TrEMBL record:
SUPFAM superfamilies: lambda repressor-like DNA-binding domains. This is XRE family transcriptional regulator. The lineage of its organism: Bacteria, Bacillati, Bacillota, Clostridia, Lachnospirales. Residues 15-69 form the HTH cro/C1-type domain. It comes from the Bacteria. It comes from Parablautia intestinalis. GO terms for molecular function: DNA binding.
């Protein structure tokens, strides 16, 4: 199944950003991802979409969030603070994650996130 044109544009833009961030040419990126330069160009120009296996490989190899490849939103998710937090999350245990959730809820304001009541309840019931 092919991506819609909008989805392909979001993916292509994410791929270009990751390539630029790593200071890679199209040829270098294609070599790193073990596919042809023409396939790389087609992905960036939204002429084709990767298989699920290629999508996974591209995200893992270029350190791209799958969300950034699929969802287009207007929040800055490329900043160093955001990326540092994403890098640290897998290193956290449940207790640390609960503290992070509670902190985020407090910073954002309990009324401004949907589902914040359940987040607050889960955090309060965890062993912090």
């Amino acid at each position: 199944m092919s991506l819609s044109i909008n989805d392909a544009q979001v993916f292509g833009a994410a791929l270009k950003r990751a390539k630029k961030k790593k200071h890679l040419t199209q040829a270098q990126c294609a070599e790193l991802l073990v596919h042809s330069v023409s396939f790389q160009k087609d992905l960036e120009r939204c002429r084709c979409s990767p298989s699920i296996e290629n999508f996974y490989h591209i995200c893992r190899t270029l350190d791209i969030s799958a969300d950034d490849c699929i969802f287009q939103d207007h929040h800055d998710r490329t900043g160093s603070t955001y990326q540092e937090l994403l890098r640290l999350l897998p290193l956290c245990d449940e207790k640390a994650l609960s503290v992070l959730v509670a902190t985020a809820v407090a910073l954002i304001g309990a009324g401004s996130i949907s589902g914040s009541d359940s987040l607050s309840i889960n955090v309060c019931n965890s062993e912090i």
